[in-house]
Amino acid sequence: MFERILIPIDNSSESWVAAHHAIALAQEEGSQLIGLYIADEKVISSPCWASADAMDPLSPGCDPMMLQQSENIRKQFKELGEKALRDLRQQAATAGVTIETYFETGIVPEIILEYAQNADLVVMGRRGVGGKWRGPLFGSTFEAVVRHAPCPVLATVSDPRPLNTLLVAYDGSDRARDALEIAMHLALEKDRRLIILTVDDGKHDRTAASFEAAALAREKGLSAKRRLVKGHVAEQILIAADEENVDLILIGAYGHSRFLAAILGSTVNDVVHQAATPVMICRKQP
After folding, report:
1. How far is the C-alpha of 9 from the C-alpha of 36, rounded, in Å?
2. Which of 33, 143, 230, 237 is least surrounded by Cβ atoms within 10 Å, i.e. has the fewest?
3. How far apart are CA 204 and CA 210, in angstroms?
């Protein structure tokens, strides 16, 4: 299912945690890793932006000293990126995983999304360099990738542990079916315990969806545990994950537009923010 796994590296501890998850999953799936380091053009160009008067049409632009500073930043990115990719190649080789690595310069989320077009999974830490969240992922690289990637995104939290128990949130939507299909694949791979959680939030009767998911699992030969509860969706997902000692949560991709999610919040945002375990936000390749 995951033939090519993309892992963006930025030298933060969070991105290396994500790399460890990606390598472990690649070992299990027989996947090829794609290592990607991006020199952030916004950071490289920041000295020139700071020195130029954007409001003055006659401004001479970046002065030579600031231009040199930008070039120094560019060289530093190159050195750090080459070392990070070299270290990543070594870790993959030690694990017996094939890998190809790339160094790029540009706008970080745009390049990640470009590479994601040829990947089956993106693995990212919830934070990266300069990635302190402001609100519900609003405006972050992580949010941009999760919202627009054509494939699932695995958000990692801490070093990988054995994936013995999986929890998939299911409400009958197309994205929930994507999550269920991926969860069933992972459960069958290693005979893992699968829990299917359906939450009745008072707006819709989810009973039929709960039985539907259990039936789909049985068709695959899985005896999944079915949980049907009432309450706030994100809260119930987090409660179930804690009570069942879950190792991975799988959830469908965003259901609201970005504008609505900013106002109303989002189940995905809430779960990813608060979960103590990795969360896979699922959207199958078309």
Report:
1. 6
2. 230
3. 12
Render pLDDT for 50-109 as a digit per residue (tens, 0 to 9). 555 544 444 445 667 777 788 888 899 999 999 999 999 999 999 999 999 999 999 999
Residue 188's Cβ-count burial label (10 Å; 0-12, 13-18, 19+) is: middle
The torsion angle over the Cα atoms of residues 163, 26, 277 and 247, rounded to 10 degrees, is -10
Domains and CATH numbers, the chain: 4-43+74-155 (3.40.50.620), 161-282 (3.40.50.620)
User: What's the maximum distance between 2 C-alpha atoms anywhere in the chain?
Assistant: 71
Which SS3 state, helix, strand or coil, does residue 89 take?
helix
The residue among 186, 173, 251, 252 whose CA lies nearest residue 217 is 186
- pTM of this prediction exceeds 0.85: yes
Q: Which residue has the higher pLDDT, 140 or 29?
A: 29
- Structure token pair of residue 126: 């919830």
3-state secondary structure of 33: strand
The residues, ordered by sequence, that sit 6+ positions from 59 with a Cβ below 8 Å of its Cβ are 52, 53
With left for phi above 0 and alpha for psi between -120 and 50, is residue 105 left, alpha or beta? beta
